[in-house]
Amino acid sequence: VQPYIPETVFGVTLNRSGAWTYLLDPDARIGYVRLGAIESGADAAFRDALEQLVKADAAGLVLDLRWCPGGYVDATS
Length: 77
Hints:
- This protein is α+β, with helices and mostly antiparallel strands.
- Helix content is 18%, strand content 26%.
- The protein contains 1 helix and 6 strands, in the order E-E-E-E-E-H-E.
- The chain has one helix at 42-55, and strands spanning 9-10, 13-14, 20-21, 23-25, 30-35, 60-64.
- Strands 1, 4, 5 and 6 form a 4-stranded mixed sheet that branches. A two-stranded antiparallel sheet has the order 2-3.
- Strand 4 and strand 5 form a beta hairpin.
- The radius of gyration is 13 Å and the shape is globular.
């Protein structure tokens, strides 16, 4: 049994495999990423989302911070 890890990075929709789709407008190649609370692992999840958008040749990005209350950042890591 794996421990529960809350999601902190969200996309537009979940695909059948449970992964987020980050292209908001595939024709215009506009990406969308929403950040929730910044917790452990958020940096890697955000990096993965951006890498997917780069691979999809995204022309722009909507970074949604409306529901991001911030979080704890460990300066030593």
